[in-house]
Amino acid sequence: MPRYARHLAEHTIVNPFPGIVKLERRLGHAVPVRIGSNEGLAEPASPLVAAFGPALADLARLYPDPYALALREQLAALTGCQPEQVVIDAGADSLILLALRLCVNPGDPVVTTAGSYPTFRYFAEGVGARLLEVPYQPHEQGLRPDWAALVATANAERAAVLYLANPDNPTGYAWPAEVILALRAELNPDTLLLLDEAYVEFIDPAKAPPAGVLPGTLRLRTLSKAYALAGLRVGYALGEASLIAKADQIRPQFALSSWAQAAAQTVLADPAYAPALRQHTLQLREQLSAALLARGRQPFPSSTNFVCLACADSQEAERIQQALLAQGIALHRPPHPAANHLLRITAHPAALSDAVLAALACR
Known about the structure:
The protein is 40% helix and 14% strand.
């Protein structure tokens, strides 16, 4: 079991505002009259009514369920877990910070891949962790995280957290289930494996991740990509019930708004929506990869909703990025020195434009 930060290990923190939904479930009946939360009045003249309709205006007015219990139940059913094995926060980024707050004391070592998703480093520095970075491993036409070196470093340093994005961002590489299981088995049992699966819906079924909850692991997911809710910040994590319960003790109660919860429940309830969006995205990804190959560029194989392209060096990558920015077109170049020769291009119709393809083909 992962070790918690010292001030949390033997201390239980009680949420002072557990919300109406938990109260209703405890009582066994609805509580339709809310005069204890000091919420704003329902006002027909609200500009929100005219702009978005009365339903959204009312959701905006009322405090959300702090535990998003109905949404947890939907996500548990989707992932084959139990509701008590799901925690919800404002996007996968907030869940990264939550995991670090949960397990890291100032000075504790944490391990990641040099150049992988930079928000982990950003938050790790913010909590005072000692960051240890392992280089990417060259692989066929691309780069991939070196899982064996990550584990060896984490074990040698008795790291509090090992972060692995799978699929990786920005390279797009995905390790199959057997590697993830081997990684967890070889990792110190008291090191938290923070497994960022933000792009999991785009993995080839042949590389499908392990099912369910893994010991000592928080599996981060998001509705930003395959459900197109990036602006509403809906993220969730899967983990052992005891780990989830501890995380809930330090999570901001009202991080996920009523509107975000309602929108998430709506898209999850439509069985055709996400598969159609996924299929369209995969088609665009393949078209983009083919277009780059036709212009003499070799993109990395991708298990995500983007394509990664390696330039000769960081100067070439920056030149291409700046040329496109001058035309009002933004693509991503990772800030880390180990990865700033890479360009990450979203699978999007605009990426197939003549302007983008011409700039990417230019050497």
